[in-house]
Amino acid sequence: MKILVILSVFVFSISCAFSQTPNPGLIISHLTGDFYVYTTFGLYKGSPVPSNSMYLVTSDGVVLFDTPWDSTQFKPLLDSIKIRHNKKVIICISTHFHEDRTAGLEYYRSMGIRTYTSKRTDELSKERNAKRAEFLIYKDSLFTVGQYSFQTYYGGQGHSPDNIVIWFEKEKILYGGCLVKSTEAEDLGNLSDANVKNWAVTIKNIQDKFKDPKYIIPGHLDWSSKESLMHTLDLIQQYQAKNPTTK
Hints:
By secondary structure, this protein is an alpha/beta fold. It is built from 7 helices and 13 strands. 44% of the residues are buried.
């Protein structure tokens, strides 16, 4: 998978970025066709962590799935998309209420971009004083933008009470966000709002509904493997074995 754009103060390899700077900037990578993964960075427990998001280029404009975690990359992302594709971002959908998904919602709304979250995400964002979207998704919904269609789906609680995924049926792309753990992940990560007891059921609901994905994009770390759903289940089992009273 070829990296197409790297925007940073300096050009680093990913390994160097982790060891030398808390903010490597913005990395845009081609996934397939008109689909791109973009990665920004934030601090978790004092260490820089990559946060994966996506965008889709359509004949009507560009759709963002989640916002940059790093506020310094809100505008560079829009500029990079304009330079590369000569299109504007017209829609942004955030998949749960944590900052690595919603930080840019109000900025993008101010730029005239239609911003969306689920109703539950909006409720949690309001409670936690997080950024909020202009428009709400009240149930699993099918969006059609230009020549592409995609579905939002809530399979249940897991990483957070409100985590949704995005499914592209024709292309067999599953954008899992933080509900899905990268095969590079060694544990379940941030559990501050998690429901580990229900997480496995939620993953199985997704597996049952969306068959044979060609690409699965987790919220953090490496996204090149198609085994991240199974790896997430393995991590849940490991956690529950060590914490038998998990709620």
